[in-house]
Design the sequence.
C-alpha cells in the first residue's frame, strides 16, 4: 500500500519472529488492552481520521472484540470510512485461530464491513453454507451480502481443473448487484502471506477504481501472479532441482516485485457475472 502511494498506520495483532509455517516461531499475541493503548494514543492526538481501515489476522478473542469497538469509533469520526475485513480464520478445512472468533466475525464485524475477502473455507464458516462449486459459492456470497456487506470477494475457489483457480466478486449498490469471475493459473508452490497481499492490493485498486470492481480484481490478481511466479522461481532455484523449498526459501519476493505492484501488467482477464 505504501509503494502505491498510501500513508499507512500499522497496529500489529501479533509480534512474531517469523510467520508460523517455520518449524519454530517466538513472540507475542497481543490483547485488547494493548490495542486500546495504541489506539487511544491516536485518538488523544486527534490523528484517528482515516479513509480506510483494513483488518487481517487476529490471534485472540479479546483483541478481535476490541477491533469491533475501534471500527465503530473510527466510523463515528469519519462516517465515510471504508472498512475492509479479511476474516482470517483458516484454510483447507482447518482453523488456525481460536474457533471462538467465528461468532465475533459473524455477528459483530461483518455488519460493519464494506468489503470482505474470505477464502472458500472462511466463506463456508461465515455463511453456514457448503461450497463445492461456483453456484454454491455465489449463494454463500449472497448470505454475506444479506448480513450487510456491500462487496464480497471470494479470493480463491477451486475449479474442475487442477491448474486453475477462480476469484468471484460481487457488489451491491443501490439495490443492484453486479459481479465478475476471474480465472487464473494455480502455482503449485505453497506460499504464506498471499491473503494479506491480496486484500491490501484490492483495497488500493477498489479505491482507485470505485466503479469498476472487475478492473480492481484484475489488477490485484495480475500483481499477485507476478509476485508468486517470481517467488516460486526463486524458491526452486534456492532449493535445487528435485528438492522442496522450505519456508525461508518461499518468502514472498515483495521488494523484487516493486514494479509489478506499482504498475501491474494485466495478465488475467475477468468476465461479468450474468
Sequence:
Amino acid at each position: 500500500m505504501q509503494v502505491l502511494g498510501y500513508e499507512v498506520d500499522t497496529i500489529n495483532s501479533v509480534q512474531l519472529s517469523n510467520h508460523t509455517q517455520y518449524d519454530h516461531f517466538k513472540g507475542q499475541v497481543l490483547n485488547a488492552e494493548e490495542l486500546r493503548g495504541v489506539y487511544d494514543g491516536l485518538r488523544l492526538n486527534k490523528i484517528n481520521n482515516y479513509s480506510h481501515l483494513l483488518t487481517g489476522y487476529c490471534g485472540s478473542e479479546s483483541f478481535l472484540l476490541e477491533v469491533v469497538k475501534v471500527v465503530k469509533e473510527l466510523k463515528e469520526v469519519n462516517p465515510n470510512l471504508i472498512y475492509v475485513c479479511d476474516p482470517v480464520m483458516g484454510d483447507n478445512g482447518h482453523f488456525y485461530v481460536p474457533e471462538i472468533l467465528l461468532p465475533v466475525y459473524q455477528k459483530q464485524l461483518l455488519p460493519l464491513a464494506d468489503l470482505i475477502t474470505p477464502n472458500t473455507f472462511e466463506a463456508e464458516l461465515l455463511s453456514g453454507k457448503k461450497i463445492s462449486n461456483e453456484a454454491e459459492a455465489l449463494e454463500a456470497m449472497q448470505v454475506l451480502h444479506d448480513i450487510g456487506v456491500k462487496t464480497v470477494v471470494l479470493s480463491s475457489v477451486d475449479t474442475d481443473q487442477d491448474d486453475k483457480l477462480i476469484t468471484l466478486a460481487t457488489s451491491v449498490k443501490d439495490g443492484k448487484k453486479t459481479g465478475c469471475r476471474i480465472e487464473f493459473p494455480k502455482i503449485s508452490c505453497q506460499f504464506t502471506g498471499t491473503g494479506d497481499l491480496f486484500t491490501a492490493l484490492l483495497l488500493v485498486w477498489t479505491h482507485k477504481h470505485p466503479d469498476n470492481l472487475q478492473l480492481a480484481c484484475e489488477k490485484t490478481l495480475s500483481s499477485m501472479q507476478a509476485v508468486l511466479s517470481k517467488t516460486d522461481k526463486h524458491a526452486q532455484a534456492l532449493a535445487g532441482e528435485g528438492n522442496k523449498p522450505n519456508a525461508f526459501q518461499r518468502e514472498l519476493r515483495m521488494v523484487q516485485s516493486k514494479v509489478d505492484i506499482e504498475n501491474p501488467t494485466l495478465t488475467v482477464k475477468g468476465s461479468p457475472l450474468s
